[in-house]
Request: fold
Amino acid sequence: MKKLILLTAFAAVCLAQEQAGGAASSNEPSAAWKWANFVILAVGLGYVIAKSLPSFFQARTESIQKDIATARKTKEEAERRAAEMDARLAALGQEIEKFRAQARAEMEQEGERIRRETAAQIHHLEQQAESEIESASKTARAELRALAARLALDLAEKRIRARLDEPAEASLVENFFADLAHEGSKN
Reply:
């Protein structure tokens, strides 16, 4: 690069000397000087650009490559998550069917348990009702016997009163006292 600058400067000086011989009479700079100034300016700008642009482009390239790598990782992560979600969705139908089958089995078990408990309750109620009927029957029989006994006593009393008159009553009382006296003497 230094050689190019030196060569350009040398060419500009040579060109300026040639033009200096022919344009010494005018105050205005010659076209050769204008071209030499342009070449020097272009070489200077080229040098500055050549120094700074490669590092700029390299930094920009690295930044873009880093962004591409980040985007690739993000895309891969998103695809992985999407695959996981697809797998979950595919398995979700099976899980729902599994839960339905399990719920059906639990409902059948619960129904069977309720049937057994209901049958046990019915049996218990039947036994309790039989016991209460038997108890009520015994009570009714006892009441019926007591009523029959009372009616029999009442009937016997009425018959005895109908047959018993004063002479028979006096004879009964005398026999009673005689039996008492006879019993008292044995003791």
About this structure: The chain has three helices and no strands. The CA atoms of residues 81 and 103 lie 31 Å apart. The two ends are 170 Å apart (CA to CA).
